[in-house]
Amino acid sequence: MASTIYDALIVGAGPAGLSAALGLSRVHRSKVVFTKPLDAGFRNEGAEEMHNVLSRDCTPPADFRQISKDQIMKYSTTEFVAAEITFLKKIEPNDKDQIALPSHFEALDRDGRKWHGRKIVLATGSVEVLPTNIPGYKENWPQNIFQCLFCDGHERSHLPFGMIGFSPMHAHAAQMANLLVTKTSGPPTIFSNGPIPETESMLKALESVKALGCKVETGKIDRLVPAESPEVGVTVHLEDGKSMHLGFLTDKPPTVLASRDLIDQLGLEVESHSLMGEHIKDLELGGTTKVSGVFVVGDAGTPMKAVANAISSGANAAANLTQQLVMEDLQKLLTSRPN
């Protein structure tokens, strides 16, 4: 492994990493795709279908990943390795232990195995930080609590539904949720999970959601209970004794970057958006970063976290990465030519 220098090391095998691998396969670039440990899962692990992805709408995520891997393997330029990468570093030609190798990156996995690659593609994604103060929240995520109504919600739009939390931002979210309202669902019920402060901004937001026809429940949530199959949905129990069965709830917990240690090792900067969560700062078109040779794709590189965006970012990075390889190879040829 250590004697081979691949064109790229792709850390992560979700939609973004797979898309980058496919793009590089089309131009015969060698690469290793490192998959997460089998027990680590993916960001929306537990979601039954992926939506809003052209030609793959309503496809189970595991099926999507398998179809993608099968198509990539046909090109015979990709190795898929079930390894958890724990350390990444850039090796320059003047490193004493690597004097015979050109500038490249080294990846080390938890078992001490090493791989070398000319470029790094980080496709490690993000994870939601679920609230711990609402009993039953984790048990309903993501089957009954949806964070994106473009991705989920339509299939249950005939059922009553609700929103968790209340703030001025929730007034805008209620407008979006109102797009799913049907004759049988009615406007969403907003569960503020406690009294709403009577500030000017809150009162204005409250006026907006009531104008949309939303009912507002200010009682504290006691617990969320998922329906038992074949039924769907969730029952919201409030501390005051009220309960309501809904087809789904919508909420947007904050996200943090997965594999933050790798991001820090490479010297990449991180910024945080109050609504959209963490992402790596200052990316350019095609996923290039301030660290030469490092590309970031997928949820880790944008506040707009969605499968379709991740696929696009992987394809763009593959094109940009290939251009860099081509230019480097040409420069090497030019400098090695005799005068």
TrEMBL record:
Molecular function GO labels: oxidoreductase activity
Domain of life of the organism encoding this protein: Eukaryota
SUPFAM superfamilies: FAD/NAD(P)-binding domain (SSF51905)
Keyword hit for Oxidoreductase: yes
InterPro entries reported for this sequence: FAD/NAD-bd_sf (IPR036188), FAD/NAD-binding_dom (IPR023753), Ferredoxin-NADP_redctase_2 (IPR050097)
Key words, A-Z: Flavoprotein, Oxidoreductase
A biological process term (GO) from this entry: cellular response to toxic substance
Stored Pfam families: Pyr_redox_2 (PF07992)
Ranges of residues in domain FAD/NAD(P)-binding: 6-314
Family membership: Belongs to the class-II pyridine nucleotide-disulfide oxidoreductase family.
Protein name listed in UniProt: Thioredoxin reductase glit
Origin species: Exophiala viscosa
